[in-house]
Amino acid sequence: MPEKLIGACVFGQSGGPTSVINASAYGVIRTALDAPEITGVYGAAHGIIGVLNDTLYDLGMEDAAELKLLLNTPSSELGSCRYKITGENDLARIHEVFSKHNIRYFFYNGGNDSMDTCHKVNDYMERVGYECRVIGVPKTIDNDLCGTDHCPGFGSAAKYVATTIAEVYKDAYVYDTGTVTVIEIMGRHAGWLTGSSALAGLTGFPPDLIYFPEIPFDMDSFLSKVETVYKAKNNCLVTVSEGIRSADGNFVAEAKVSATDGFGHAQLGGTAARLASAINSRTGAKVRGIELSLLQRCAAHLASQTDIDEAFLAGKFAVECAISGETGKMIALVRETRDGAYHCGVTSQPLSVCANMEKKVPREWISADGVGVTSEFIDYVLPLIQGENTRIIENGLPRFAKLRKIPVE
Ligand code: F6P
């Protein structure tokens, strides 16, 4: 039994938000506030940047009811960053800030790049002999983290995508003249979210063609497939990943790149518009390119209750693991079947199996022709989109958390 570690904790959010990342925040914060070992619960402003700048909020000063609203509040409430720790200077500074506030627990909520940050912080603290327990909490709409069955944030985004595809399908069929609609979905290197558009088929209104980043993109083949469907149906609905690339590795979106983040990732976008224009030139059809962009990751109104519950559970379990002595771990969700029904368990995985790696959609879960999914894919995603969330509504609009964010002295 490891010795009790008494001290403060800091929690940070990193990378692109999801509609349930704040449910994990609430899981961490509530559990930490209730833990006798944890003497102060601090939030880092903009993730690790807030630690480096010593800009921390005292979350113990927040109203309990307001904190609970985090369960249904989208975006990263404490602010996020895409900052890559590059050298000893950053790590020494983090050590300095941790020592100043007697921070003995570090919880970091993010994707694979954020797990890299956790890994480096944990290694450094061990190296310099500063006792601090570091636990990563997974999140990402991309669902590409290794070591976990799925990621909090993905189920809600998948629910939004599948619902939106079915709704757009209904609209896209109204005119006698016919249209081609291309919908661009996030997920830079993995097509989990794009593939989830296939779940619209369960409503009877599926996309005709799905383009994954896992499969090299060929413009000629794309245009002839669209043309064939369009000629047959006088309509065609296509979903494409923002991350599709040609065999030479170039993103189709690259013409639109406007920025590169701290991890060297290009900001993608503009793929749907580009493809829509190519389709128009080839077929003369009325076309529309729609980029779901931020809408798919902040749509808290359509969040899956399963996803909210699992995001909360991941945050809560992170604190429990740390208190029981674990460090250098990421919380992982485990798919179980109980009495024939889906059940989500939790475990912890060494950060070394999660940091900097990406889990792609297995080729066998993509249909043989490369433009659809198999039943295994549907069976995997379906349990994750279940459950309608109950939210507090005021004036017909959602009531989101408004934290006071009182600085730690
Ligand atoms: O965090 C994942 C993600 O939402 C990706 O799907 C997307 O490519 C990326 O973030 C966009 O990042 P940003 O908001 O930093 O441009």
- Summarize the amount of helix as a percent range: 25-40%
Strand content: 15-25%
The helix count comes to 12
- Ligand list: 6-O-phosphono-beta-D-fructofuranose
The topology string of helices and strands comes to EHEHEHHEHEHEHEHEHEHHEEHEE
Summarize the structure.
This protein is α/β, with parallel strands linked by helices. Helices cover 33% and strands 19% of the residues. The protein has a seven-stranded mixed β-sheet, with helices on both faces.
What does it look like?
The strands form three sheets. A seven-stranded mixed sheet has the order 3-2-1-4-5-10-11, with helices on both faces. The protein is of the alpha/beta class and 409 residues long. It has helices at residues 21-33, 48-52, 64-68, 88-100, 112-128, 154-172, 192-195, 219-233, 271-283, 295-298, 305-323, 375-381; strands spanning 7-13, 38-44, 56-58, 103-110, 133-138, 179-185, 209-211, 235-241, 286-291, 329-338, 341-350, 393-394, 397-398. It is built from twelve helices and 13 strands. Bound molecules: 6-O-phosphono-beta-D-fructofuranose. 6-O-phosphono-beta-D-fructofuranose binds at residues 15-16, 82, 111, 140-142, 186-188, 242, 261, 267-268, 297.
What is the topology?
Elements: E1 7-13, H1 21-33, E2 38-44, H2 48-52, E3 56-58, H3 64-68, H4 88-100, E4 103-110, H5 112-128, E5 133-138, H6 154-172, E6 179-185, H7 192-195, E7 209-211, H8 219-233, E8 235-241, H9 271-283, E9 286-291, H10 295-298, H11 305-323, E10 329-338, E11 341-350, H12 375-381, E12 393-394, E13 397-398
Parallel strand pairs: 1-2, 1-4, 4-5, 5-10, 6-8, 6-9, 7-8
Antiparallel strand pairs: 2-3, 10-11, 12-13
6-O-phosphono-beta-D-fructofuranose binds at residues 15-16, 82, 111, 140-142, 186-188, 242, 261, 267-268, 297.
